[in-house]
Amino acid sequence: MQLFKALLSQLLACAAVLGIHTLFPLPISVWQAAAMQACLAALCSRGFRQPVWWLPIHLLFIPTVLLGLSWQVPAWLYLLILLLLTLLFWGTVKGDVPLFLSSSAVSDTLIEIVQSEGAQTFVDIGAGLATVVVPLAKARQDMAVVALERAPLPWLLATWRCRNLTNVRVGRSSFWEQDLREFDVVFAFLSPLVMTKIGEKIRREMRAGCLFVSSSFPIPNSEPESVIELNDRRKTKLYCYRIGRF
Ligand SMILES: C[S@@+](CC[C@H](N)C(=O)[O-])C[C@H]1O[C@@H](n2cnc3c(N)ncnc32)[C@H](O)[C@@H]1O
């Protein structure tokens, strides 16, 4: 659906620029026309209520194609870039959460949280490049850590980064298929779009007294036990939910 909306936004913006140019032949350069198309595509995307991370894609798409044409980039390079982006962002076109990474302040705080919880098991549902999992597993070598990542390239990099950490298991599966019962602390840095469903899943599966920590996105209509505000670049907030009490 998202891919269809993206294509439609691009096509509508192209049609609008061509239409305007036919009706009012302005002396504008191809780059100015591309800039106009990019802005219109971004506007259409917002109109279609695409998630906000589509904006840079719409703004850069046609200008990048033009750049490629003017630099006479070989055709196989487009295919390679497309392949890499697909492996990196895998489910994003279907509306899944894209890859963006937590700061070191997040992993430092999670280390403190698992210590104070006395956690023996931890999972990052959507582990990306294992940015959180690696420092955590190093700091708590007695704790069993699971990293779940569905996109192939991040999963491969996470597996490589965790290759010497015997207390980590990196799984290339969707967290929706993982039973969360076995974990003392569950961490997620996902998207507002999935938080209601995540809330239902953790209520259903996690054991009473365990802790769910969501970076940046709260569970709608649920009261967290605490909210930790970090002093990193994004001013990240960690929403902590005690299972059985929210
Ligand atoms: C915002 S990134 C967070 C990465 C990492 N947890 C961190 O904090 O740095 C979200 C990650 O979740 C992954 N993801 C999205 N949906 C998923 C799913 N259903 N199962 C497993 N991973 C998923 C994405 O591929 C992406 O790498």
Structure summary:
This protein is of the alpha/beta class and 246 residues long. Helix content is 46%, strand content 13%. InterPro entries: FAM173A/B, SAM-dependent_MTases_sf.
Furnish the topology, listing elements before pairings.
Layout: H1 2-23, H2 30-47, H3 54-70, H4 75-89, H5 104-117, E1 121-125, H6 133-139, E2 144-148, H7 152-161, E3 168-171, E4 185-188, H8 195-205, E5 211-215, E6 226-229, E7 237-242
Parallel strand pairs: 1-2, 1-4, 2-3, 4-5
Antiparallel strand pairs: 5-7, 6-7
Helix pairs in contact: 1-2, 2-3, 5-6
S-adenosylmethionine is lined by residues 90-91, 96-97, 99-102, 124, 126-128, 131-132, 148-151, 154, 174-176, 189-190.
General description of the model:
The protein has 246 residues and is α/β, with parallel strands linked by helices. It has 2 domains: 2-73, no CATH class; 104-242, Vaccinia Virus protein VP39 (Rossmann fold). The chain has 8 helices and 7 strands. A 7-stranded mixed beta sheet has the order 3-2-1-4-5-7-6, covered by helices on one side. The chain is elongated, with a radius of gyration of 22 Å. The mean pLDDT is 91. The site of S-adenosylmethionine (SAM) has 24 residues, from loops. This is Methyltransferase type 12. InterPro entries: FAM173A/B (IPR026170), SAM-dependent_MTases_sf (IPR029063). Keywords: Membrane, Methyltransferase, S-adenosyl-L-methionine, Transferase, Transmembrane, Transmembrane helix.
